Records
---
Amino acid sequence: MTVMNIPMPREQLERIVRQVVRERLSTGGAAPVGAYSPNLVVNTSARHMHISPEHLQTLFGHGAELTVYRWLYQPGEFAAEQTVTVIGPRRRMIEKVRILGPARPASQIELSGTDAIALGIDAPVRPSGQASGTPGCVVMGPAGVVQLDQGVIRAERHVHMPPADADYYGFQDGQYVRLRVISSCTTMFERVLCRVDPKFLLEVHIDTDEANACDLPNATSVELLA
Amino acid sequence: MTVMNIPMPREQLERIVRQVVRERLSTGGAAPVGAYSPNLVVNTSARHMHISPEHLQTLFGHGAELTVYRWLYQPGEFAAEQTVTVIGPRRRMIEKVRILGPARPASQIELSGTDAIALGIDAPVRPSGQASGTPGCVVMGPAGVVQLDQGVIRAERHVHMPPADADYYGFQDGQYVRLRVISSCTTMFERVLCRVDPKFLLEVHIDTDEANACDLPNATSVELLA
C-alpha cells in the first residue's frame, strides 16, 4: 500500500511535524543538552466571581478588601476568603461561590454549563471579559445585594502562556489550539483559546464539566496541539 | 513543498480515506442514487436508575410496575414516571432521579461526574452492567429504602448501532471509536464504546457533563470516526 497519492492538508502535516519534533526533543538521547520543554499544567476552574471595587463595597461593606484564601498558579491571582450567593431568575441559587482576586474593572460570574442550567441562566460560552449581551443575575453578600445586568458566562476554555512557550509551540495570541487529555475517557478539546502575555505561566483552564468529561483527576498525560 | 516522505500511520490514513468517502457520499452530485447514509443521533443521558424487579417492589410497593413517562430512542426503552432519591455517604442527596425501564436483572445508578462529586461518591467510569467493585448508595422511594452495595457508575460514553451501520463505518462491537461534536467548543470524544446489536438504532449516549463540555444543544454537526 502506498500513501503518496493521498493529499494531506498543510495544517495536518504541520501538526505531525510539530509532534515529531516535540517527541524527539523530549526523548533523552537525541535531544541537545538543556533543550527546553515547557511544563504544561491543566487546571480546573470551578465556578467563581470576579468583582469590581464598587461591588466589593456593596456586598461586603464599606472599606472591605479581598483577603487571600489560596494563591493560584498565575502570578498575583488568588482565591479570596470571600464568597457570595448567586441567584438566578427563578430564585434558584448557588451558595459559596468564591471570589477570585484581585478586583477587576467589571464584575463577572463564571459558571459551568451544569451550574448555569441549575440556576436557569442561559449563559453563553465567552472569553473572559467579553460580557456584552450576556445575561445578568442577582449576587448576595453578607453586607448587601447587587443586580448584575450582564456578565454571567461559561468561560471559554483557554491556555495562558508566556511568549517563550508560544514560540516553542508555534502559537499566536488569540489562536485556537487543541488540548488532548489522555485518561479512561480520552478527550481532545478543540477551540482552546491561546492567550499570550509575558505575565503568564503556561496553564490551561477548563471548567468542571470539561474536567469531568475527560476525567482530568485521573488523566495520565496532557498535550497541546495546533 | 512535498509530503511524500512523511510516513503516515495506517490508522490515520484509513481515517482520511473514510472521511473522504463519506464526504463524497454525502454531497449530492457524485453520490450513487440511493447511497446509504446513517442517521447519526447524539443524545444526552441525564442521571438515572435501572431497577431490578425486587427493588421495584421495595421502593414502590408490592405489585408496583413501571409506567411510561416518555419513550426513548432505543426501541422498547422508556423513561418511567417513577423517580427515586439517591443518597450519598455524607447524607447529601439528589431528588427526582428518574428510573429507565424496563426493569433489569440488577439495579444500577448512572451519574455524571458533577453529580457524583455533589453526592460524595467516587463513581468510576464503567460500561453499563459492569458493576463489580463499584460503590453503592442508599436509594429512597415512596414505599421504602434500599441499600445498594454496588452499581453507582459514570456510564462510559458509547454508541448503539445495528450491524448495517457497523458495516458502514467499519466498526466492531466492543471497539472504541471517536465522536466529534462541532460547536462553539468543538470537542473530539475519544474512547466511545461501540455496541453493536440488531435491536439497536444508531445513537450515541454522552452524559450531561460531556454534553455541556461540547455545548451539544448548540452543535452544528456531529460525526463518528475510527
Note: Chain A touches chain B at residues 1, 3-4, 6-8, 10, 13, 16-17, 112-114, 117, 125, 156-157, 184-191, 207-215 (CB under 8 Å).
---
Amino acid sequence: MMHIFDIQTDGPGLYEITGDVRRWLNRQGDGVVVLMVRHTSASLLIQENADSDVQRDLRAFFDRLVPPSDNPSMKYLRHTAEGPDDMPAHIKAAMMPVSLTIPVAAGRPALGTWQGIYLFEHRTRPHAREVAAQFLSA
Amino acid sequence: MMHIFDIQTDGPGLYEITGDVRRWLNRQGDGVVVLMVRHTSASLLIQENADSDVQRDLRAFFDRLVPPSDNPSMKYLRHTAEGPDDMPAHIKAAMMPVSLTIPVAAGRPALGTWQGIYLFEHRTRPHAREVAAQFLSA
Amino acid sequence: MMHIFDIQTDGPGLYEITGDVRRWLNRQGDGVVVLMVRHTSASLLIQENADSDVQRDLRAFFDRLVPPSDNPSMKYLRHTAEGPDDMPAHIKAAMMPVSLTIPVAAGRPALGTWQGIYLFEHRTRPHAREVAAQFLSA
C-alpha cells in the first residue's frame, strides 16, 4: 500500500529521511522501494551521511549555479511572481531527482555505508512536504 | 505488458504527457509506473503544470548553462558532426532524468496538485520520440 | 534476488555495463530492472554508445561546471579533506542519477538503439564500485 512521509521543512537544505524509510520497510522482504516527492520545488537525493559539510557545500554550489531570480544574471527569467527563490527551485528540481528507486534486501534498503536519503528543500519559507512511497516485492 | 508512448516533437521544449499516462493507467490498481525515454537527447521531467512560463524558463536556463557547440565557450567539445545542438542535448540528457518511477494508487499516479509529466526535447529538428512504460502491481 | 555488479574503475570517466546487465537479465521475462550505485561519488547514466567522443565530452563539460575544490572559483567549499576531487564528485552525484529504472520486455532492457548503461566514475584514484540490481516481474 502506498505510504506518505510528511516532512516539515524550515528553509533550504537537506533533511534526512533514511530512518523513516528504514522503519517503514522493516517488515518487508526483497524488492524495491520507490520514493517520489509530490512537489516541484524540492528534490530527493541519496548523498553522503558522514560529514555535514557535504550537505552545506551541495547547497552552496547549487545556490551559485542557480542564483535567485532577482540576481542581475537571472533577469531573463519570467516566472518571478512567487518570489526570487521560486523559479530557481523549479530549476533545481529539474536538475536533481524527484523520484528514487532503491533495491531492498530482507527489508533493508541496499544503501552503501555512506549513503543516506534526503529531501532537498529549495524554498526559503517553511513548507509541509509529502514523499509518496511504494514497496514492490521482487 | 510494456507500452510505448509515441511523441512527435517540433523543436526544443517541454511536451506534456500526463494525460496519456493517466489514460493508460486507468484500469490498473496500486503499484508504480516506470517511464523511460528511448533516446539520448531528450529527458523526462516531473514539473509544474500551472504557469507555462516555468517551462519557458527551464529551457532558457539550460540553454545558457549548456550553449550550442558552435558557441566560443564550448569549443572544447569534439562530438560536433551532428550539429551544434547535438552534444548539448546529450549533456542535458545526463543532467536531467531519462527514467521516472511514479507511485500509483487505485490506478492514479500519486502526483502532487501542480505536477505534470513532460518529455523535454533537446534537439532543434522535429523528432519522433518513444517513451517505454511498464506498470508494476504492488 | 538482489544482485551486485562489481566494477573496478581507474580514474574519471564512463564505464559501460550494458553487457553485464543484459547477461544477468537473460532468463527473466517482462518487468523492470532497478540499478543503484552504492556510493556517493559516482553516477549511473543511460547515454549514447556509438561515438566515444560523447563520453569524453560529457566528462569535459562536468569537469568545467564543477571544478576541483583547489580551483580559486571553488574556494567556498569546506569538505576538502579527502582531496580536491571529492566534493566535486558528490556534486556530480547529486546532479546525475545514482539510480535507474529500465523497462524490460522478454528479458531484454527496452533501451533505444543508441543507448548504453554506464557507471560514471567521478573520483581520480581507482575504486571498487558496487551497483545493486533488482529485477521485478510485471
Note: Chain A has three helices and eight strands.
